[in-house]
């Protein structure tokens, strides 16, 4: 039954996130209350707080869970950058229409922008630690630089995805997302290969 329980938790978390994103897009971040999100998701206010401590956390949905999964995956990976790409492959949903709302909110609401920057920094730290373990303890600076470059490349890939979605007015296809992410990974792999 643990499988069923986890699926129900995931469905509830997704319903809250989806309701929040929809309301933030329609009414604005400040004008949307946790009670309204709860009502739109058909859950109690307490349930919303069980899954998300704040409205800022609702904006980014499963990002903290995905980050924990990345850390777990990298601990067992022989090579960091390909493992990060493997981690990104099933997460292509983060480059869907929600991305446009998240980016707009990050620009308009300081707390959302700060949470977004914090999440990127956490990914950078996890990737940097994995690259450091891969390269060895005397190459920590090189590992941190490689991680920062890779996260910057992912940011550029996200920018490209958002611009394309705005231009064509539809979500990107899985193939388009893969092409963008593959370009970011190729850039990062080339950079790691040149590290002294």
What's the pLDDT, averaged over the residues?
A: 87
Domain module count:
2
Give the % helix.
Answer: over 70%
The counted number of beta strands is 0
**Rg measurement, Å:** 18 Å
Strand content: under 5%
Termini separation comes to 51 Å
Describe this structure in words.
The chain has 196 residues and is mostly helical. It has two domains: 2-53, Arc Repressor Mutant, subunit A (Orthogonal Bundle); 60-193. Helix content is 79%, strand content 0%. The protein contains ten helices and no strands. The protein is globular, with a radius of gyration of 18 Å. The model has no long low-confidence stretch (mean pLDDT 87).
Key features of this structure:
Arc Repressor Mutant, subunit A; 79% helix; mainly alpha
Summarize the structure.
79% of the residues lie in helices and 0% in strands. The chain contains ten helices and no strands.
How is this fold's topology laid out?
Elements: H1 2-27, H2 34-41, H3 45-51, H4 55-59, H5 63-75, H6 80-88, H7 97-108, H8 110-135, H9 140-168, H10 174-193
Helix pairs in contact: 1-2, 2-3, 5-6, 5-8, 6-10, 7-8, 8-9, 9-10
